[in-house]
Structure formats: structure tokens, C-alpha cells
Design goal:
two-stranded antiparallel sheet, six-stranded mixed β-sheet, alpha/beta, 2 domains, 230 residues, Aminopeptidase
């Protein structure tokens, strides 16, 4: 059965970053625009929030979808000086899948950030006793929230804008690692040509279908073309 992921890029249209960053909602949806097709390319079923949704409706939508993982994508703000990514899970040290997801996301994003980072943190009691990070507290499936960097810092906002695609790919890799799905390199295009690896040729269609099914079980994309033999 295909794995399912709910993507929840920030819907905070009023969180405006430094210089020409624009809104957190706009930039994080750009990151999600990278993550979504990459997950689908690996056979993952993806559902995504809408910028017009409230946080409570996002949580409800995710819970109704019953994903294997819920991934929230945000950028941060504090004092215009702080930098670095941080990732949240419900609780640390429990070995739960949400914590595994947070650790995998952090490891991938921290590889590409230009500064030191801020670690994996708990959403539990984050704002004080009994005051949890809402999205992680109320989603019923394993969830994580990444703050890719601080958009109120001029250097960081510039860095995020220039690294939308690498951030999206890093988040994708963290999700796939958590789902135990191997990364599949994209076809390399050189001089207008795409070079594909052929896994076999069969005179009997049923044999070709069996091979395609086997490849799918291995999370390898494939397709069948018919060629007439002269």
C-alpha cells in the first residue's frame, strides 16, 4: 500500500520577512512546490493544505486524510539576529515516528544551512505548561514542523530565497528516509536527451507486467512501451 504524507506549508500570510522575502506563507509554499512532486515521483500519495485554511481546518483535513506522516513547513522570526533551522516533534526520547521524522528532517536541512543550527525540540509544553504547539499536538498521526531559518534576519531571508529548491529536496529526503523509501535519482538530461535504464524486454505481455509490478514494489518507477517486431 502506498505511503501517504500530508504537507502543511505555512498559511501565515501576515508574517512578513526582511527585504523582499514577502510572506512566510508565500515562501514556504514555494518550498512545498518542490517537495510535493518529488514525493509523488517516489510513489507517495500527497495531500496539501490550502493557504486559505485556518490552522484548525488544516489539522482536521490532515486527520481525515489519515497520512503516515504530517509535515509542516515554516520559517521563523525572533529578534532579527538569530539564525539557523530547528525542527519540532511531539516529545523527544520516545523513539516515536514523529521524533524519527524530526531528526531526519533536521539532519538533511542542517547539511545545507550556512550557520550553526538549533536542534530538534519538543512541541509539548513549548509555550508553557499545557500550552503545546497546536499543529503537532492535535494531528493524530506522527507529525513534525520544520523552521527552515529566520525570515526576519536579512542574511537568512536572502539565503532562504536563494535555496528554495535545496530546502525542498532536503525535506523530501528526510521524509523518504522516515518512510524507508530510497531516493531515486532523476533522469539526467544532456543535449536534449533523456537516458533511461531498460529493465528488460518481453515477448509475453504478462511477463512485462509482472516485472513492472516487481519494480513498483522496489519503489522504482517504470513504464511499458510496445514495439512491433518485423
Amino acid at each position: 500500500m502506498a505511503k501517504k504524507v500530508y504537507l502543511s506549508p505555512s498559511a501565515q500570510e501576515n508574517n512578513i520577512g526582511a527585504d523582499n522575502y514577502g510572506s512566510e506563507e508565500y515562501r514556504m509554499n514555494q518550498v512545498a512546490d518542490i517537495v510535493e512532486p518529488q514525493l509523488k515521483r517516489h510513489g507517495v500519495v500527497v495531500k496539501r493544505n490550502s493557504p486559505s485554511m485556518s490552522l484548525s481546518s488544516i489539522v482536521k483535513d490532515s486527520n481525515n486524510f489519515e497520512p503516515n506522516l504530517h509535515m509542516a513547513i515554516h520559517s521563523n522570526a525572533y529578534d532579527k539576529k538569530t539564525r539557523g533551522c530547528e525542527v519540532f516533534c511531539w516529545k523527544k526520547g520516545k523513539g516515536l515516528l514523529g521524533e524519527v521524522l524530526a531528526n531526519n528532517i533536521y539532519l538533511e536541512v542542517a547539511k545545507i544551512t550556512p550557520t550553526s543550527d538549533r536542534g530538534v525540540k519538543e512541541a509539548y509544553n513549548f509555550y508553557g505548561p499545557g500550552k503545546h504547539m497546536y499543529e503537532i499536538a492535535h494531528t493524530t498521526e506522527p507529525a513534525s514542523l520544520v523552521e527552515v531559518d529566520f525570515h526576519d534576519n536579512k542574511q537568512s531571508s536572502k539565503w532562504i530565497i536563494e535555496h528554495i529548491e535545496p530546502l525542498g529536496l532536503a525535506i523530501t529526503r528526510g521524509i523518504l528516509k522516515t518512510l524507508k523509501i530510497d531516493w531515486i535519482p532523476e533522469p539526467v538530461v544532456l543535449d536534449g536527451y533523456v537516458y533511461r535504464v531498460v529493465a528488460g524486454s518481453y515477448k509475453i505481455k504478462d511477463n512485462a507486467l509482472k516485472q513492472q509490478k516487481l519494480l513498483k514494489q522496489m519503489n522504482i518507477d517504470s513504464f511499458i512501451e510496445a514495439h512491433k517486431i518485423n
